[in-house]
From TrEMBL:
Taxonomic classification: Bacteria, Pseudomonadati, Pseudomonadota, Gammaproteobacteria, Lysobacterales
Annotated transmembrane regions: 363-382
Top EC class of this enzyme: transferase
Keyword Transmembrane helix: yes
Key words, A-Z: Membrane, Signal, Transmembrane, Transmembrane helix
UniProt name for this protein: diguanylate cyclase
GGDEF domain mapped to chain residues: 423-556
Length: 571
C-alpha cells in the first residue's frame, strides 16, 4: 500500500462517514470504492464498521452482526471499537437479542468516560438512552438524553437528545405537558440526518394528543408530516405514524380513514415485528368492524389483535427480564472480581509478611553474629591483657629480667629437672660494690641506669637456658643448669670482668662499677634452691670481705654465718 492509496482511502472513508444516514446513493458508491482499495488494518475496520452500520439501518441483522462484532472486539482504535459497540447495541435490539444488547451496553458504559471523541460519545449516549428506555430503565435513559442535550458536539443540536428525552418520558408515563422545549428541539432538527428524529418526536407528540383526548390535533400533526416521512423510507416509524393515525381517526369516529390507516400500518410494518403499531392496527380494525356490525371480521381481527397484543407485551417483559438477568450477571461478576481482588490482596500481604519474617530472621542472625564476634573479641582481649599482666607480674620493673618470685619458681623447676636427670647445676649470686656511693654521688637516676647497664652486660654473657633474676636492690642471681663448680666459677669470672670493663652509664664514661660474686653448686648443697642460696650468699659475703670485685666458691660450712638474704629466703 502506498501512502497515496492511504490518503485516497482516508478521503473516501471520511466522506462515507459524513454522508451516511442521509445520502444513501453516495454512501453506497463510496463503500464500494473503498472495498476495491487495499486498506490498512485501521481503514479495514473503519469500512467494516460502516458496512455494519448500513446493515443496521436496513434492519439486516445477519449481515450486520459479524461485521460490528469484529470491529467492537478486534479494532485497535478505541473510538472505532466504541462506535461499533454503540451500533451493535442498536442492531441487537432490532434483532431482539436483548441479553447480548445489555451486555454490550455495560461495555459501552465502561468505555464512555475514556472516549474523548465527542461525536462518538454522543452516538454512544443516544444508543444507551434508547436501549435503557426499551428496558424500562427510564431514569437512566433520561439522564443520557440530558447529557446529549447538555453537550452536543459541534454541528449537532438539541434535536437528538430531545427526541430520546421525549420518548423516555412518554414511555414512562411522565409526559404531563408538551413543553415548548420539544417544539424548539424539532425546529433545531436541521441536519440532514435529523429528519428521522424530528419525525419520531412528532409521533410522540401525536401519542400525547391521543392520550389526552385531542385526536384531531394528532391527525393534523401526523398528516402534515406523513409525506416527508415516507420519503425517508423508514418502515418502522411510518408504521407507527399509520397506527397512531388509525387510533386518532377511530376516536374521531372516522371509520373509513381509521381502517385505511390501520391497513397501511400493517402493510409497511416489518412482518412479524412485535410493535405497538401492529397491535394498534389490529385493535382499530376489530373495533371498526365491530361498529359496522361485521361480527365475523371483527372476531377475526380481534384474535389477531390478541396475538399481537400478547406478542408486544411479551416482548416488553422479555426486554425487561433480559435487563434484570444481565444486571444480576454483572453484579455477580463484579462481586466475584472484588472477592478475587480481596483474595489477591490477602496473598500479597501474606507474601509481604513472609518476606518481613525472613528479613527479621536475617536481622536476628546478624545481631547474634555481631554479639558473638564481640564476645570473642572481649575474650581475646581479656586473655591478652591477662597474659600481659602475668608477664608484668613476673618481670622486674626496672631491668626486665625475672623478679624474685619468678626466679624462685623458674630456678625451682630447672633444679627439679636436674635432680631427675642427675645433672648438676650451679647458682651465682652477685651484688654491685659500693652502690650506695653511686646513688649518693650521682643521684638515683644514674643508679638506675647503672643497674640496667649491669643487667644488660650480664644478659649478653648468659645462655638461653640460664635463669637470671633480680632478687632485690642491687643483688642478682643466675642459675646455670648442667654445670659443674669450675665451669660456674669461670662463668662468674666472665660476668665480673664484663661488668667491671663497661662504663656504668654512657653519660658518665669514667664511672665504672664492680660486683662481688658467690657461687654454690648442687654437688655441695643438693638440688634445693634454698640451700644453694644460703651457700652462695655466704660465699658472696666472703667475697665482699675479701675486698670486693672477686668471685668466691661456696662451702656448706658457710651456712650459719651468712647474714645475706637468710631472713628473706626463710621467710
Ligand atoms: N638507684 C637505685 N638504688 C637502689 C635500688 N635498690 C637499692 N638501691 C640502693 O642500693 C644501695 C645498697 O647499699 P648497701 O646495701 O649499703 O651496699 P653498697 O653500698 O652496695 O655496699 P656493699 O654492698 O657493701 O659493697 C642503697 O643505698 C639502696 O638505696 C634501686 O632500684 N635503684
Amino acid at each position: 500500500t502506498t501512502s497515496g492509496d492511504d490518503d485516497g482511502a482516508y478521503a473516501v472513508l471520511s466522506e462515507a462517514d459524513v454522508v451516511k444516514g442521509f445520502d444513501d446513493v453516495r454512501f453506497e458508491r463510496l463503500i464500494r470504492d473503498a472495498q476495491a482499495m487495499s486498506l490498512s488494518p485501521h481503514d479495514r475496520a473503519w469500512l467494516d464498521f460502516m458496512r455494519g452500520w448500513r446493515a443496521t439501518w436496513e434492519g439486516n441483522y445477519e449481515t450486520g452482526r459479524p461485521l460490528l462484532e469484529s470491529v467492537a472486539d478486534g479494532a485497535a482504535d478505541p473510538v472505532l471499537r466504541f462506535r461499533a459497540t454503540a451500533t451493535l447495541i442498536n442492531l441487537l435490539g432490532v434483532g431482539h437479542r436483548y441479553e447480548q444488547a445489555y451486555l454490550r451496553l455495560a461495555r459501552l458504559q465502561e468505555m464512555m468516560p475514556s472516549i474523548r471523541d465527542r461525536r462518538a460519545r454522543f452516538a454512544g449516549q443516544a444508543e444507551a438512552s434508547q436501549l435503557l428506555s426499551s428496558a424500562g430503565q427510564f431514569d437512566q435513559a433520561e439522564s443520557y438524553a440530558l447529557d446529549m442535550m447538555r453537550d452536543p458536539p459541534p454541528g449537532e443540536t438539541l434535536c437528538k437528545g430531545a427526541q430520546h428525552l421525549l420518548r423516555a418520558r412518554r414511555e414512562n408515563g411522565h409526559l404531563d405537558a408538551l413543553e415548548s422545549l420539544y417544539q424548539t428541539s424539532i425546529a433545531s432538527c436541521t441536519r440532514p440526518d435529523d429528519a428521522v428524529f424530528a419525525q419520531t418526536m412528532h409521533a410522540d407528540m401525536a401519542a400525547f394528543y391521543i392520550a389526552r383526548g385531542r385526536p384531531a390535533e394528532a391527525v393534523t400533526l401526523l398528516t402534515a408530516n406523513l409525506q416527508a416521512l415516507s420519503a425517508l423510507k423508514y418502515a418502522i416509524l411510518t408504521s407507527e405514524f399509520e397506527g397512531l393515525l388509525a387510533r386518532a381517526y377511530l376516536n374521531l369516529g372516522d371509520l373509513a380513514h381509521a381502517r385505511r390507516s390501520a391497513l397501511a400500518a400493517l402493510a409497511v410494518g416489518v412482518p412479524g415485528e412485535f410493535t405497538d403499531a401492529r397491535r394498534a392496527a389490529f385493535e382499530v380494525l376489530y373495533k371498526v368492524e365491530q361498529r359496522l356490525n361485521h361480527s365475523d371480521a371483527a372476531l377475526a381481527y380481534h384474535e389477531q389483535f390478541m396475538a399481537a397484543d400478547k406478542a408486544y407485551l411479551d416482548d416488553i417483559s422479555a426486554r425487561s427480564l433480559a435487563f434484570q438477568v444481565v444486571d444480576q450477571q454483572l453484579r455477580a461478576r463484579k462481586t466475584e472480581v472484588e472477592a478475587l481482588n480481596r483474595q489477591n490482596e490477602i496473598l500479597r500481604l501474606t507474601g509481604a509478611l513472609a518476606n518481613k519474617e525472613v528479613e527479621t530472621g536475617r536481622l536476628y542472625i546478624f545481631v547474634l553474629l555481631v554479639c558473638l564476634a564481640l564476645i570473642v573479641w572481649i575474650v581475646l582481649w581479656l586473655r591478652r591483657s591477662q597474659l600481659r599482666f602475668m608477664k608484668l607480674a613476673r618481670r622486674d620493673g626496672l631491668t626486665g629480667i625475672c623478679n624474685r618470685e619468678h626466679f624462685v619458681e623458674q630456678a625451682g623447676r630447672v633444679l627439679a629437672y636436674g635432680a631427675r636427670s642427675d645433672r648438676g647445676a650451679c647458682l651465682i649470686l652477685f651484688d654491685l660494690d659500693h652502690f650506695k656511693a653511686v646513688n649518693d654521688t650521682y643521684g638515683h637516676a644514674v643508679g638506675d641506669e647503672t643497674l640496667k647497664r649491669a643487667v644488660d652486660v650480664c644478659g649478653r654473657a648468659l645462655h638461653a637456658c640460664d635463669v637470671f633474676g633480680r632478687l632485690g636492690g642491687e643483688e642478682f642471681a643466675v642459675l646455670l643448669p648442667d654445670c659443674n663448680p669450675a665451669q660456674a666459677r669461670a662463668r662468674a669470672e666472665q660476668l665480673r670482668l664484663s661488668i667491671a670493663a663497661t662504663a656504668a652509664t654512657p653519660s658518665i664514661p669514667h664511672l665504672h662499677v664492680t660486683a662481688s660474686f658467690g657461687v654454690a653448686s648442687t654437688l655441695q648443697c643438693g638440688f634445693e634452691l634454698h640451700r644453694l642460696l644460703v651457700v652462695a650468699d655466704a660465699a658472696l659475703y666472703r667475697a665482699k670481705r675479701a675486698g670486693r670485685n672477686c668471685v668466691t666458691l661456696g662451702d656448706t660450712a658457710d651456712i650459719p654465718d651468712s647474714p645475706y638474704l637468710m631472713g628473706e629466703i626463710r621467710g
